[in-house]
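Minimal example, chain plus pentane-1,5-diamine.
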Amino acid sequence: MKYRLTTALIALAAAGAVQAQDTVLHVYNWSDYIAEDTMEKFTAETGIEVTYDVYDSNEVLEAKMLAGSSGYDVVVPTSDFLQRQIAAGVYAPLDKSMLPNLANMDEALMDGAAAYDAGNEHAVIYMWGTTGIGYNVAAVAERLGDDYEVDSWSLIFDPEISAKLADCGISLLDAPTEMLPAAMNYLGLSPNSTDKADLEAGAALLETVRPNIRYFHSSQYISDLANGDTCVAVGWSGDVFQALYRAEEAENGVEIGYVIPKEGALQWFDMLAIPADAPNPEAAHTFINFIMDAQITADITNYVWYANANAASMSLVDEEITSDPGIFPTEEAKANLWASTVYDARTDRTISRLWTRVKTGQ
Ligand code: N2P
């Protein structure tokens, strides 16, 4: 009885809203980055239909944003890309009067994001995470020994070590602005350096280990790790945990670990923003406010295993997640995390040229 009543109410509310608005919201988000029922709930609550497309690269999103007329109402750039795109006039300022759920957000984290968007004028934090290493516990132990502790970028960047793992499959993110700084950091250079010589040194290190890398891709590693088709992946925290969880569900005997290497790692923030030419900015605000609901954000974190910046949601997030140092890093690990660098156009060209060389050997 209770069920029927609820369904009837949702149907009624939805019908009313659709009549009132007849609106479609176009969302462009990262793949594997939302709970199964988030969109359904949004439509039920607001009557706004959603088309939902996905990408797995900031460069792909950026090309669409700079070209303009993407047709999207809400997109999710990482904060360094966001800053550059704001400077290019890509995003509309938020109308904060339409975002009462901003009160739920963690002030310290939003202040951190304000380093890329003064006053948080254009964007709010969707999820955040780190770029570390996912690995198949048994496959790595088999090749490096049971006592080998996986805690260092040497797993990838020491050519002798990665050579021992090459046969079971190593993948790197196809994300030059994350991979080059990781290599630079391993060499003892600043991961935030924009010095051409430092970037070249990072690329040279990557070229040295290139023969040990099976592929560069930023989403395929989730299923490959989960199925045991690869055994090491530089990846994003929540995605590796999704692999871990999928393997557990499949009961296929694959055990996955995620490590923030002791040398440090990138901490990034993915931001909800509204393109200046969004067809439906009002619905976009309604959506961003909906996402900032404590329960909705908690549901997403509980499904995608990424940390969020919604203080009000924390008591609703599974303890298994809040207590995992791979998702919410310890104070000790935090001290070694670095923030993303915003590259100017010239450095950006250097990076993409180096990246082509790393990937293709040319
Ligand atoms: C989700 C990847 C989001 C993290 N699959 C990249 N910023």
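Residues 1-9, 15-20 have pLDDT under 50 and may be disordered. The longest strand covers residues 123-136.
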